Amino acid sequence: MKPDQFNIRHLAAMAAIVDQGSVSLAARAVNLTQPAVTQGIAKLEAQLGVALFERQPGGMMALEAARRLKPRVDVALRLIGSNRVTATQVRAFVALARSGSYAAAAGATGVAEPSLHRAVGDLGLAVGSRLVDRRGRGVMLTKAGVTLAQRLRLALAELRQGLEDLAELKGEEGGRILVGAMPLSRARLLPDAIGRFRGDAPQVAISVLEGSHAELVGPLREGEIDMMIGALRDPALAIDLDQRPLFEDRPTILARRGHALEAGWDADALRRYPWILPPEGTPLRQLWQAMFAELGGDAPPVPIECGSVMTIRQLLVGGDYLTLLSQDQLALELQAGLLSDIGPAPGSVSRTIGITTRADWRPTRLQQQFMTAIETAANVMAS
Question: Where is the HTH lysR-type domain (predicted)?
């Protein structure tokens, strides 16, 4: 079962029964008839493959499955914001928000365009807001639409985690970990962590989305990835995120093997050669600027801005460029003699590497187990 296949009213009824302890009180709370609630719970239990309640003369007793699912459902319902919203409407609008046009959304979902139009229009009526504006052949989300799309993605992420909680309860192997990998984590930290985790949980799938902090923080905030690994940012700029430090990384100056600066260098020598660095505002660029502040004088121009380690490697090998990176990121090239570490960066040049998650995120057991594997791998790297 997928998280966007739930009947939202059935979820609301389930949560109300846990709170109220009876079908009759829950029916009043969610504005459904008692038979509708009873049928809805039966359908929900059939979909999930677990019993949610034990029927007793005095009411309904929530079983472990209901108790596990209830907190996730509460969060999802709060994010969705209305019991009038349907799963069909959620699927349609999330697809439209992701693709940018009804035609593309129809191709992605297999649903006819008229049906998508109707579902999105009905969703707007249910939440009382205009969600999209026409822009030629495509659409643009309104401010209310952008906010709702983010909330619906987070709701689906919460329900996905609820399904994984129930799978664990049923003793089923499986699930999926969604990881955002910033550049530094890809060379050693993340592969080591995946290897450790898979040794204990071989049936769990792992999806890795590569990108910079700027590219990954949006998917993280919208629940499309569970966590991201890499250089941490200023906490004041990420108050809705939780940043867990793992270790301090000290970058070094790298060049091709045989570069003139292998024999030694000073500040003036570093200014004579072209640099390859990530864009302004990234932690590594800030460390590079701090390095030249320590050396004294102005920082040289940066003719090539690039965050791709693969591209940087090829440019270094083929020219007299310099860069500032962690040794781990180009360890194979250093071992093979293609590149040379011409010296540690002077000054207090280091960056904190860690795990970033949403501040209100509650990991499943498997997600917590994966983060433990990351922490173990980080401890080995730091030792």
Answer: 6-63, 85-142
The size of the chain, in residues, is 383
293: left (phi over 0), alpha (psi -120 to 50) or beta: alpha
Question: What DSSP designation does 248 have?
Answer: E
Kindly give the residue spans of alpha helices, DSSP state H, lying in the chain.
8-20, 23-30, 34-48, 64-80, 87-99, 102-109, 113-127, 143-169, 183-187, 189-200, 213-221, 267-272, 283-295, 309-318, 331-335, 365-382
- Bridge partners of 344, per DSSP, are 252
- Phi, psi torsion values for 71, nearest 5 degrees: -60, -35
| CATH 3.40.190.10 residue spans of the chain | 173-248+353-382, 251-349
Taking Cα atoms as reference points, which of 47, 35, 61, 49 lies closest to residue 11?
47
CATH superfamily of 251-349: Periplasmic binding protein-like II (3.40.190.10)
The reported pTM is 0.84
The per-residue pLDDT for range 110-135, each reduced to its tens digit, is: 999 999 999 999 999 999 999 999 87
